[in-house]
Write a structure and sequence with these properties.
Length: 321
């Protein structure tokens, strides 16, 4: 879509707050959002999707747009943490936090330079490739959709996490497709009672969903339940974001959404900085919700400030944004 939609940026702003919260000491504040805070970005990308050119032309353009900030912010974080090792270099190419799921011990951890959120950028590259296949071969969409579900289930059983989130990208491509269909069907303007039913189903499924962590291929008690949670939760955020347009709180999330890429990539060093400052200010207190709120605030404001500074440089703005 050529025109930027404000409520999509607002939704991304809400999403980035939840992402930062998930990495902070205030994780408990978002327990009801665990099923949707990452899918919202794939869902929103599908909602704003438009395909101009051949499959290869579209993918090449998307690849460049994502791989450049991925490499730039990895180098930036390496220099920030002064971590230069073969394992970290392998981590950049493999683009997963660990080789095995987190419940496997011993494990091999790669991205430990504050760069582990960057898995999302390579995941988006792989996701777009699989999503473009659905759009390009639209007559075969039903076959592809079923195949993607089956492949996601099969790949969830393999012992290692695959590079560039190949094992989860079939599922995230389905989130993207769902966002596109919601847009095409005009479903984002549903009535209150319909949204109320979706919310009740979301809450009910969340209570039985179990632990979820898409980045390390943890889908909870059921892959299908997680997919419904991701779609319904993302839809609820998009639907609600429309009512925030023009409001002060909406403008706040709008700004965060437009700068979500930099915040996403640089949240960890600011969270660590906030944690250390909190320990220095309150040496006798244990880390908890208060520390977590401070971490969230500093990560959002710090990432926003860096994003604004980067965009003041014409070359970096063209490269990264």
């Amino acid at each position: 879509m050529d025109k930027r939609l404000e409520f999509i940026d607002i939704a991304k702003g809400i999403g980035i707050v939840l992402v930062v919260c998930s990495h902070s000491d205030a994780l408990g504040l978002m327990w009801l959002m665990m099923g949707m805070f990452v899918p919202i970005f794939y869902f929103s990308s599908g909602f704003t999707f438009s395909m101009k050119g051949t499959l290869w032309e579209c993918f090449k353009k998307r690849f460049r747009k994502l791989i450049v900030p991925y490499l730039f912010f990895n180098i930036f974080l390496f220099c920030t943490f002064m971590h230069f090792s073969l394992r970290e270099l392998v981590g950049v190419f493999y683009s997963r936090y660990s080789l095995y799921p987190l419940n496997v011990s011993p494990n091999i951890k790669f991205m430990t330079s504050g760069n582990y959120p960057l898995w999302f950028l390579t995941s988006m590259i792989t996701t777009y490739l699989f999503f473009y296949l659905i759009v390009y071969f639209y007559r075969l969409k039903n076959l592809l959709l079923i195949s993607y579900f089956i492949l996601t289930f099969i790949l969830s059983k393999i012992p290692i996490l695959l590079p560039w989130s190949i094992d989860t990208a079939f599922l995230t491509a389905l989130f993207m497709y769902a966002g596109m269909r919601v847009r095409d069907k005009g479903l984002v303007s549903a009535k209150w009672w319909q949204v109320g039913l979706i919310l009740l189903v979301y809450i009910g499924l969340h209570l039985i969903s179990g632990e979820i962590n898409l980045s390390v291929r943890v889908y909870g008690t059921s892959l299908f339940i997680y997919f419904i949670l991701g779609c319904f939760g993302s839809y609820l955020v998009l639907w609600g974001s429309r009512f925030l347009e023009g409001m002060y709180v909406g403008k706040f999330f709008l700004i965060l959404g437009k700068n979500s890429l930099t915040i996403f990539c640089l949240e960890i060093p600011f969270i660590i900085l906030a944690e250390n400052l909190y320990k220095w200010l309150f040496p006798c207190e244990e880390l908890g919700y208060m520390a977590g709120v401070f971490e969230i605030f500093l990560a959002l404001m710090g990432g926003l400030l860096v994003s604004v500074l980067l965009q003041k440089n014409k070359i970096l703005k063209q490269m990264l944004f």
